[in-house]
Amino acid sequence: MKKLIFGIMMMVAVLMVMGLPVLGLAEGSTGLPEDPFTWETLATLAGATMATVLIVELLKLPLDKVWKIPTRVLVYFIALGILLLGTAGGT
């Protein structure tokens, strides 16, 4: 019973913390970028991470069926390519 109450309290605390950034938004602003895949956003750490995770998740399973490439190696080369292209394309 104590574990259940503790779990519920933790869920409520996490949901409250996740909802706090919404209170900081200005009126009429969604806080989201209009186009998340511009060269300027891909050259940032957040943009490169978002694109890398998306691409790796889409390619990991098909590539594992053909070649046994370690995921770390795949992530490294995809992230390197995105950062190089984002830096070159943003200028």
Describe this structure in words.
The protein is mainly alpha-helical. Helix content is 75%, strand content 0%. The chain has a domain at 35-91. It contains four helices and no strands. It starts with a helix and ends with a helix. 7% of the residues are buried.
Topology, please?
Elements: H1 2-23, H2 39-42, H3 45-66, H4 71-90
Strand count, sense and closure of the main sheet? none
Any idea what the radius of gyration is?
A: 19 Å
Termini gap = 59 Å
User: In which range does the helix fraction lie?
Assistant: over 70%
Number of strands: 0
- Described by the principal axes of the CA atoms, the overall outline is flat
Overall pLDDT: 79
| Strand percentage | under 5%
Question: Strand pairing plus helix content: what structural class?
Answer: mainly alpha
Order of helices and strands: HHHH
Task: Identify low-pLDDT runs.
Answer: none
Q: Please tally the helical runs, counting DSSP H or I stretches of 4 or more residues.
A: 4
